[in-house]
Task: structure prediction
Amino acid sequence: MAATTIKFDDKVIATNNADVYYSAFRAVKNVTIDIPPHKITAIIGSSGCGKSTFLRALNRMNDLIPGTHVNGEFLFRGINIYDPDIEPVAIRSKIGMVFQKPNPFPKSIFDNVAWGLKITGARSNINELVEEALVQAALWDEVKDHLHDSALSLSGGQQQRLCIARTISIKPDVILMDEPCSALDPIATLKVEELMRELSKEYTIIIVTHNMQQASRVSDYTAFFSMDEDRAGIMVEYDSTSKIFTAPSEQETEDYITGRFG
Result:
């Protein structure tokens, strides 16, 4: 199946015929996509169709799983991130990631945000940079008098915004978000969604979500993934979010959006 898709002249991330394998099993097959800057791109689809695998491949997080390998091109600003001379840590400093479950370190609120700054070599203005990241993450007013308290004392929603602050403290170009609100209550979810819209003015955001209402609320573009006959994840359609949710080009997309399967 050839995916219905759009192309951009200006793109931060692009893949060409991208495959991801777990040993002999192909989990993602032939995905070609352009991700434009300063927009939110949502990846939707049923469980097991390769959404998170594909997302993690965009900053080489799958390298941590033995037997994982890729084919095709995974490009960041035109550079193939899987070239042998590319260091995964360097890629992850430019393409940060926020996970499904908030994962603050068992350290203070301050040290959580300062950690990334220190390992990337920041030696001065740490206090100012931590404050800037917490302000950007819409958390500063809530924690400014408790910076040396444990991050684990925060609520789930606050912990997730702290993880976002930790990610953006080192000024990546791209933020990957894997189901960032699935463990949060509706109020905390709304705060993170509002934060995403604000952050997209400065960062490119790619979010995997099972929540189609969330995708329709926050994203500018949406990619719909499904599962091929060999159980590999494929991209069926990629277009503006408004088109995907109101007039998709593919019947399979319409069936998923309207709840006929998934």
Summary: The first helix runs from residue 51 to 57. The chain has one domain: 13-257. The CA atoms of residues 56 and 154 lie 27 Å apart. Residues 13-257 form a domain with the Rossmann fold fold (CATH 3.40.50.300).
